[in-house]
User: Fold these one by one.
Assistant:
Number 1:
Amino acid sequence: MSYRSSHHQDHPSHPPHDHARPHVRRPAPLKPTPKPAAGSGYTITHAGKQVRLGPVVFWVVAGTIIAMGTWSAATATYFAFRDDVLTRLIARQAHMQYAYEDRIAELRARLDRTTSRQLLDQEQFDQKLEQIARRQAQLESRAGALSNLPDVAVTGSIRPRGNANSDATPLPKPSPISDTATFVAPPDREARLESRTPPATTKTARLAPRQPQGLDATFLRLQASLDQVENRQAATLNAVEEDFEARIRRMRGVFADLGLDLNQMEGAAPARGGVGGPFVPVKPVKDADNFERQMYRINVERVQADKLTRTLSLVPYRKPVLGEVEFSSGFGVRSDPFNGRPAMHTGLDFRASSGDPVRATANGKVESAGWSGGYGRMVEVDHGNGLSTRYGHLSEINVKVGDTVKIGQIIGAVGSTGRSTGPHLHYETRIDGEAVDPQKFLRAGVRLTSG
């Protein structure tokens, strides 16, 4: 297709004169159609066909084509640029999303680690607290076991046995052992926990710390306190065991010094009244710790000491009068105070004032109570196992035959009846009816009580 512009007019050529033909009237020639002036149109040629357009139409068409081309180019450029921008925006959005997801995953992992650490700290805290509570309960149980031991003070000393009428001054009853440590949480613990809690704007605000670092020092102080209590209990237990062992040795020594048959006397020792029950042998606890094994030994020694004490209650090793001992005459051969001739003195003469109380030196049963020749008013007490004691020259008698007397019980008063030169107490100890030196018994008693 092509177009061209017409810039000239076609002039008709004059046909050549034909002088040979006759003159014929010709019709008026047709006027030629005027052609457009130069520059007034455009011719479009396409496939041998021509289309003539005017300038206005041409430029309208051309402008439309140019506008459409421009619009197409602009649209293509826009879509190309838009696709690139969207691709970049999508890539950037994906990158930001991945970054946020990684951050969230990191925060979640950190939160999980924090939660796990707090749970672990709480578990450790609970374990430590449970351990301290269990140890405290164990120490309290031990303290109760120690307080159940008779006559045991905090230092482990044992109060000498005896009643108010004996010559030994009894020690005051010790108070039970109370060396216990009680764990009490600090009163401001909750406030400190709240003050350490992060603001509630974060998710971790609901996870309050369960184990502040300050509790470690508290646990250490509690452990140290419990260690001190345990050490004191161990020292007390050792002292108690040592005292029981020493006491048993001293009591056995009394029988050895006096030449008495301990086995025979233990068999004849009276049992406690108002007690009973089935016999259940004592066995050590399996898997027992040192404290329990030591308590087992102490309980066994305690039973032995109690049995020896009941047996010793039948041995007259105490003084028959209170106060300082002053002998006016000893046991053995002496010059008779009335005729001056050598004579056997079968007892000890205790210097005392008339009317001073005379006390039984051991448990027993009254065999005689009344006037007995040179003894004057006399009381004889049978202590069993061939042992007996006599109390002569009494001014009065407070018991009768068949009465059961206890250690330290008043059985009469000092006097000067019978063969006597003045107020005093004639005191005898006899084994199987034969008089033996009472000082032997008294010295054994001094060694026993001095220990």
Number 2:
Amino acid sequence: MEKSILEFQKNGIPSLEKIIINFFEDPTKIAEFVGDVRDNVLQLGLNIIKEQFEAIDEALCNSGRRKKNWEVVKHDEKTLTTSIGDLTFEKTLFRNKKTGEYRYLVDEMLGIDKHERMTEDAEAKMYKEAEQTSYRKAGEEMSILSGMSKQTVMNKLHSLQFPRYKHEGPKKDVKNLYIDADEDHIALQYLNEKGDIEEDKYANIPGKLVYVYEGVEPEAPKSDRYRLIDPHYFSGIYEGKDNELLWDEVWEYIDSKYDIDKIEHIYLNSDGGNWIKGGSRKIQGIERVLDEFHISEYLTSMTTHLWDSKEDAKEMLRNVIRKGNKTDFRDLCKRIYDAAEEDDDGARKRVEDGQRYILNNWTPAKTRLQRRSGVVGSSTEGHVSHVLASRMSSRPMGWSKIGADKMAKLRAYSWNNGDMLDLVRYQKEALPKAAGAEEYLTPKELNVFINTSGKDPNRYTERLQVSLPFQAMKKIRIIDNFW
């Protein structure tokens, strides 16, 4: 830290003294005081980081191992955005004596890609903010003293890859397992490139959400609010045959975490959409249960025209679904259909639509209304709202398909308590080492170089102490301002 301390002694301390003097001239300006001190101290931090990066580069230049295979070509500068500000440091370009390959060896030591513009901490902070608010805000908040454009944030998000779940430890034994599935309708700004959707045509795409859990429990003793037990979320834009990939992920998770032979029932709560039915075919032994919200929605729509009798009619429909058969249900639907005015085509169509929906999901609807032991209520509407809609569709915004897919996956990753720093590091494949560079500098050699290149680390302590004249002047100013 030699250079950093000397730089702070030369410029940082005088700057802090000036900041403190200005504060005591007007102690009401606390915000300005805090901000100025913060920026001054953060600059010291950036200088310390810069010095350590350059120390590694210097150690490479002095390494005997390096000299056998690599020769110095030139010195360049690289700027990285960190979570505290922009960092510019000097690095050396080397040339391999045997292969002629050029490489910045310090990049390899630090695990930095040659095209990288930000450090891991800044990138993790960027994803955390983007998942919650917007690309613009993420670019602003990723670094205290600097930032990135919203275009850069979007580009980084579009390239994200997400890890598959890996269960550690013995598999869990559960009697019942639950899968809830639903979708959010996300507005599209463009499909693959800007301008490929007509301006007067409203287009959206379904963001699919699936989550697996072990049941529900009260949030606290005597609480009327419930929470899911050990939920795990899956989300994204899965179109066509890609829908199978979603259910493959769900099955891999279940098979990895649970002892399949011990599970007696796997209940799938949903609205009966075709992409969800595909999941029931993909996962063996699954039992579909229709979402009660959608049952109620259709039954209400079917009976609206009955006015004062509509509640009785809805209950009769429920009883037929619960205890009767399809023939009984069709007979009751015909009576409700005939009760509509002859010219009320809207009412009759609603009855037909509701009848078709229930009959297409007859067994799942019956399972739901029979309240069989082990069947729990679906929470898909609330979870779609919290996991997807709150970020992606509740506000007026448009997405590209790839942006919607990546953001949906990022939201699911966050809801699974995924660590953003782990996600950043997952993106980095091992940087290929240049030929002949396998042992240009060992960690032990680096430590020896760093520890022997300086002197007593306490030699700057006295220089950092504030002078007595300044302390006295500060007290005088306080007294003068007070009186």
